[in-house]
C-alpha cells in the first residue's frame, strides 16, 4: 500500500463517515461498505476489512472521553460519592451481561456473515426494514410513557434484552446503535437512556470486534498501513465527539423518526444503484 495524497484524502473521508454513522442509528458498516463501492482504498482486501473495524477504536475513545464521569467508578473516593460509585459498577455488570449474546453469536457466525451478507442488496433491505421499524415504534411511543427514564434505572433483565437486540446488528445494514435503541424503545426505555446505554455497550463490543480483527490479521503493518489506521482513528474520534453531542441534544427534543426516513431513502437509493 502506498499512502499518497489521494489515499490520505480517502482515509480522512472514511474516518468522517465512521464518526458520523457509528453513533447515529443508520448503520456504519453499511455506509462503509457502500462508500467502498465508489471510493476504493489501495490496500489488500484483508487489511481493508480490518481497517473498517479498527478505526472504530477512535469512535470508542470519543465515548470514553465524553462519558468519563459516568463510566469510570474509581474516581469516586469520598463517602458522599459511594452510591454513585456503586451504581457505576452495577452499570458495567449490566453492560457485561448485555454483551454476552452478541459475543457468542459473533464468534459462531462472524465468518459466515462476512462471506455471504456483506452485499448491497442485504444492506438495502436492512436499511429500509429498520427505517420502517423506527417510524412505527416512535408512533407507538406517542401513546405511552417510558418505564425506564434514566441509565441507573436499567435492570439486568432490560440489559440482557437490549443485548439480544444487539445480535441483529451482525447483519450488515442493521446498525448496532439502531438495533439496541430499537430494542430499548420497545421495552420502555427513554430515548436518552437508550442512547446512553448504547454508547456504554459499544465500548466492550467494539473493542472485542477490533481485537478479533487485529488478531486475525496480525500486527505486521507497513508504515503506510499504520499511518492509515492512526489517521482514520483520529478523524473518527474528532467527528464522533461532535456527533454524540449533536445526538444527545437532538433526542431531548425530537424522536428517531428522521433517522428512519433517512434509512428508507438511502435503502431505496442502494437498490436503484444495485440494479442499474
UniProtKB/TrEMBL annotation:
Alphabetized, the UniProt keywords read: Antibiotic resistance, Cell membrane, Cell shape, Cell wall biogenesis/degradation, Hydrolase, Membrane, Peptidoglycan synthesis, Transmembrane, Transmembrane helix
Q: Which GO terms describe its molecular function?
A: undecaprenyl-diphosphatase activity
Misc remark: Bacitracin is thought to be involved in the inhibition of peptidoglycan synthesis by sequestering undecaprenyl diphosphate, thereby reducing the pool of lipid carrier available.
User: Principal localization?
Assistant: membrane
Keyword Amino-acid biosynthesis listed? The answer is no
What is the protein's name according to its record? Undecaprenyl-diphosphatase
Q: Where's it found, cell-wise?
A: Cell membrane
Q: Can you tell which superkingdom this protein's organism belongs to?
A: Bacteria
The major lineage groups are: Bacteria, Bacillati, Bacillota, Bacilli, Lactobacillales
Q: How does it sit in the membrane?
A: Multi-pass membrane protein
Which organism is this entry from? Enterococcus faecium
The gene that this protein is the product of is uppP
- InterPro entries given for it? UppP
- Give the protein's biological function: Catalyzes the dephosphorylation of undecaprenyl diphosphate (UPP). Confers resistance to bacitracin.
Q: Where are the transmembrane segments?
A: 50-68, 89-109, 115-137, 158-175, 224-247, 259-275
Q: Which GO terms describe its cellular component?
A: plasma membrane
Amino acid at each position: 500500500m502506498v499512502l499518497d495524497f489521494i489515499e490520505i484524502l480517502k482515509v480522512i473521508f472514511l474516518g468522517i463517515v465512521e464518526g458520523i454513522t457509528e453513533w447515529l442509528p443508520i448503520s456504519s458498516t453499511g455506509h462503509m461498505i457502500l462508500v467502498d463501492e465508489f471510493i476504493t482504498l489501495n490496500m489488500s482486501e484483508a487489511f481493508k476489512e480490518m481497517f473498517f473495524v479498527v478505526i472504530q477504536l477512535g469512535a470508542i475513545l470519543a465515548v470514553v472521553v465524553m462519558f468519563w464521569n459516568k463510566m469510570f467508578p474509581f474516581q469516586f473516593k469520598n463517602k458522599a460519592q459511594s452510591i454513585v460509585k456503586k451504581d457505576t459498577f452495577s452499570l458495567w455488570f449490566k453492560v457485561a451481561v448485555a454483551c454476552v449474546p452478541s459475543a457468542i453469536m459473533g464468534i459462531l457466525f462472524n465468518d459466515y456473515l462476512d462471506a455471504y451478507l456483506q452485499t448491497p442488496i442485504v444492506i438495502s433491505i436492512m436499511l429500509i426494514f429498520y427505517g420502517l421499524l423506527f417510524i412505527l415504534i416512535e408512533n407507538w411511543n406517542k401513546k405511552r410513557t417510558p418505564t425506564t427514564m434514566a441509565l441507573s434505572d436499567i435492570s439486568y433483565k432490560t440489559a440482557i434484552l437490549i443485548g439480544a437486540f444487539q445480535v441483529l446488528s451482525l447483519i450488515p445494514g442493521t446498525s448496532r446503535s439502531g438495533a439496541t435503541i430499537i430494542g430499548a424503545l420497545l421495552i420502555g426505555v427513554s430515548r436518552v437512556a437508550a442512547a446512553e446505554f448504547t454508547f456504554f455497550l459499544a465500548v466492550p463490543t467494539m473493542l472485542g470486534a477490533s481485537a478479533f480483527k487485529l488478531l486475525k490479521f496480525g500486527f505486521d503493518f507497513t508504515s503506510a498501513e499504520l499511518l492509515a489506521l492512526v489517521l482514520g482513528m483520529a478523524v473518527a474520534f474528532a467527528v464522533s465527539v461532535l456527533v454524540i453531542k449533536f445526538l444527545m441534544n437532538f433526542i431531548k427534543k425530537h424522536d428517531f423518526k428522521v433517522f428512519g426516513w433517512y434509512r428508507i431513502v438511502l435503502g431505496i437509493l442502494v437498490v436503484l444503484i444495485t440494479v442499474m
